[in-house]
Design goal:
By secondary structure, this protein is mainly beta. The chain folds into two domains: about 80 residues, Elongation Factor Tu (Ef-tu), domain 3 (Beta Barrel); about 90 residues, Elongation Factor Tu (Ef-tu), domain 3 (Beta Barrel). About 15% of the residues lie in helices and about 45% in strands. The chain contains three helices and twelve strands; from the N terminus they run βββββαββββββαβα. The strands form two sheets. Strands 1-2-5-4-3-6 form a six-stranded antiparallel β-barrel. Strands 7-8-11-10-9-12 form a six-stranded antiparallel beta barrel.
């Protein structure tokens, strides 16, 4: 489990095919000493497991299912990725509970500057819009954010200067795709509510 507070940005140094999946080799100078084999790392919003490490480069295996459901399938050598280590008991939770299980790939439809901040508008498939509410939490490329505006299946996130500088979100352009994970509490609440309604409707 993660919090959506990105600790550093890494760079993809090499990508190798492995069966129908890939091996990603990511350079991450800041976090390398804290990692062990088997450690979980949130990479651009996707929970991956450390397979090996050498020097400042960490190796991750990316399964075919992950490639189908996330933007990692489109990443090239040299691309930057947001990185966060898994939470430890007692650690400060600065964002919200993030699982690293991507729900949807959203597309940037508009970017609007507001002083030193920017609003990024993202379009998602309509079935997912039920998890959006004003001021609710959402994870975009591994970053915990608050929904600023909603209109149907398009929502906006507001980025402060720190987030733009210290994550990959500041490099987004119209047409780019991003990993989106909706708040797990909202999903569990929906399941609980639908089961309860079903029980009493019998």
């Amino acid at each position: 489990m993660f919090s959506g507070i990105v600790e550093t940005v890494g760079k993809i140094k090499k990508i190798e095919h492995q069966g129908q999946g890939f091996l990603f080799y990511i350079e991450m100078e800041k976090l390398i000493k804290k990692l062990k084999l088997g450690s979980s790392v949130c990479v651009q919003g996707v929970c991956l497991t450390v397979r090996a490490k050498s020097g400042r480069v960490v190796e991750f295996e990316v399964m075919p299912e992950t490639l189908r459901k996330t933007v990692l399938k489109d990443k090239k050598v040299g691309a930057l990725v947001n990185l966060e280590l898994s939470l430890k008991v007692g650690q400060e939770l600065g964002g919200h509970f993030v699982y690293g299980h991507v729900d949807e790939v959203g597309k940037v439809t508009k970017i609007v500057k507001e002083g030193t901040n920017i609003l990024i508008y993202l379009k998602i498939d309509k079935p997912w819009q039920k998890y959006l509410a004003a001021e609710c939490s959402v994870t975009v490329d591994g970053v915990s954010l608050t929904v600023a505006r909603i209109k149907g299946n398009i929502f906006a996130i507001s980025l402060i200067e720190y987030t733009m500088t210290n994550t990959t979100l500041g490099n987004l352009k119209v047409g780019d795709e991003v990993n989106v994970e909706f708040d797990m509490i909202a999903k569990y609440l929906e399941k609980f509510t639908s089961n309860k309604q079903s029980k009493y409707s019998k």
